[in-house]
Design goal:
Elements: E1 9-11, E2 13-14, E3 17-18, H1 27-55, H2 61-88, E4 91-93, E5 96-97, E6 107-109, H3 115-122, H4 137-156, H5 165-187, H6 192-196, H7 204-222, H8 227-231, H9 238-257, H10 265-293, H11 298-312, H12 321-345, H13 347-351, H14 358-376, H15 379-384, H16 398-431, H17 440-445, H18 447-450
Antiparallel strand pairs: 1-6, 2-3, 4-5
Helix pairs in contact: 1-2, 1-4, 1-9, 2-4, 2-5, 4-7, 5-7, 5-16, 7-14, 7-16, 9-10, 9-11, 10-11, 10-12, 11-12, 11-14, 12-14, 14-16
GO molecular function: ammonium channel activity
Protein name: Ammonium transporter
Membrane topology: Multi-pass membrane protein
Length: 490
């Protein structure tokens, strides 16, 4: 991920007023960046809103979709008031920026490379340059906001079906402030991991590793779903689930294609690699399902797609096409193995109820992708991505590449450690004020009790579900091992 330093910004005045299109503005890059931001936003709203609302049991469809919808809105406001500057502003600590508003419409980014930062690079003090793109700061604020929003929404996948919606409303701004901004500043905003040369092209660590680890941690503190929900949790609408997954897949064009901050060769390579890896991973996951479970699973295919998209993200514009295929093979098999085999044997994972297996599809896949980037990052592609200089994967030089792999491992370890500790502190603090988990009677009823609304009126309007009267119910149908949250996790 290219990064902006503490921004030196100024209003650009012209005779007769302020120019709408100053000479320095690159209209093509600006247009691509706003399109990319919109594509990433569509991944969340409606992408993940539809995916979550369809992938869960019927009685949790409204609640799950609304958790995503609420998080998106809350992040937007928090981001422009204080969180953007904490992620991309002036340094407060080596891993954190100073909070402040990012609301000005007249402040435009002008400089391509800050002179003082360039001098430090020449002196050998840092391994990465810092860039400022040729378009308005407002474009950058909005683009980065979409990444912050989707991170919270991905995290929500771990606690669906039992977290108190009021606790979630408190959790979102707290986690954004004390966890997301730290990872973003450390790896993208000019923090210590950025200057050390840890590569995270588009969020394998900042977004996926952090959301997967924080999701698992939050799931531990919130507690499990009801016994009935853990045993029977079939998707309420598989076709809509595929629609949500499709929006997520196509939206990844902006997710990875927008991160060079320019419509350049690197962005094109990132888009192609993203789709190569996702398709390969989906096929590998599906064939593993056929080999071991005798049937291709639609849910499994969605998960394979997801792990491929996540794994390529840390190095999307920095690896060659053949490496994207190799990464797809591994992203379709390693998370499959941790989900289907390791999960059943590891007591901790059995104890923690990660509703949509976000740990496997995002934390495992994101860390895997970050480490593989350390192996496959191609020197010339790294040079195209301005913030990554003097970097190469292990296959292009054992000495320097081996160091890069080590940096990737350590960078991921920092993200893991920070998220476990800070997410735990946030959950403990919230439960001093309000219960993290819904009461048992609301867990039994679901959406109707929590929101007074239902996704589908399959019986009389306003009538609550009664197991004695409504014996034929979508949530009670016989289903295969593929049900999310069942004994055999997907």
């Amino acid at each position: 991920m290219a990064t902006t330093p503490p921004l030196n910004v100024m209003p650009v005045a012209y005779q007769g007023g302020t120019a709408a299109v100053p000479d320095w503005l690159n209209k093509g890059d600006n247009a691509w960046q706003m399109i990319s931001a919109t594509l990433v936003g569509l991944q969340s709203v409606p992408g993940l809103v539809i995916l979550y609302g369809s992938m869960v049991k019927k009685k949790w469809a409204v609640n799950s979709a609304f958790m995503a919808f609420y998080a998106f809105a809350a992040v937007v406001i928090c981001w422009v008031i204080w969180a953007y500057k904490m992620s991309f502003g002036d340094r407060l600590l080596p891993f954190w920026g100073k909070p402040g508003p990012a609301l000005g419409q007249k402040f435009l980014v002008k400089e391509a490379i800050l002179p003082e930062t360039t001098q430090h690079h020449k002196d050998g003090e840092i391994e990465t340059d810092v860039i400022t793109p040729f378009y308005p700061m407002a474009t950058m604020v909005w683009f980065q906001c979409m990444f912050a929003a989707i991170t919270l929404i991905l995290l929500a996948g771990s606690v669906l079906g039992r977290m108190n919606i009021k606790a979630w409303m408190m959790f979102v701004p707290l986690w954004l402030t004390f966890s997301y901004t730290v990872g973003a500043f450390s790896l993208w905003g000019g923090g210590f991991l950025f200057h050390w040369g840890v590569i995270d092209y588009s969020g394998g660590y900042v977004i996926h590793l952090s959301s997967g680890i924080a999701g698992l941690t939050a799931a531990y503190w919130v507690g499990p779903r009801s016994t009935n929900d853990r045993e029977r949790f079939p998707p309420n609408n598989v076709l809509l689930m595929l629609a949500g997954a499709g929006l997520l897949w196509m939206g990844w064009t902006g997710f990875n294609g927008g991160d060079p901050y320019s419509a350049n060769v690197d962005s094109s390579m990132a888009v192609l690699n993203t789709n190569i890896c996702a398709a390969t991973s989906l096929l590998i996951w599906t064939w593993l399902d056929v080999i071991f479970f005798k049937k291709p699973s639609v849910i499994g295919a969605v998960q394979g797609m997801m792990t491929g998209l996540v794994s390529i993200t840390p190095g999307a514009g920095l690896v060659q096409g053949w490496a994207a295929i190799v990464m797809g093979i591994l992203s379709g098999s390693v998370p499959w193995f941790t989900m289907m085999i390791v999960h059943k044997k590891w007591a901790l994972l059995q104890k923690v109820d990660d509703t949509l297996a976000v740990f496997h599809t995002h934390a495992v896949a994101g860390y895997l992708g970050g480490i593989l980037t350390g192996f496959f990052a191609e020197p010339e592609l790294c040079a195209l991505f301005l913030p990554v200089t003097n970097s190469r994967g292990a296959v292009y030089g054992v000495s320097d590449g081996g160091v890069q792999v080590l940096k990737q491992v350590i960078g991921g370890a920092f993200v893991i450690g920070w998220n476990v500790v800070v997410t735990s502190m946030i959950c403990v603090a919230i439960r001093l004020v309000i219960p993290l988990r819904l009461p048992e009677e609301e867990l039994e009823t679901g959406d109707d009790a929590v929101h007074g609304e239902e996704a589908y009126a399959l019986w009389a309007d306003g009538e609550k579900y009664d197991a004695k009267r409504h014996s034929v119910y979508a949530d009670d149908t016989v289903h295969s091992h593929r049900s999310i949250g069942a004994t055999q996790v997907v």
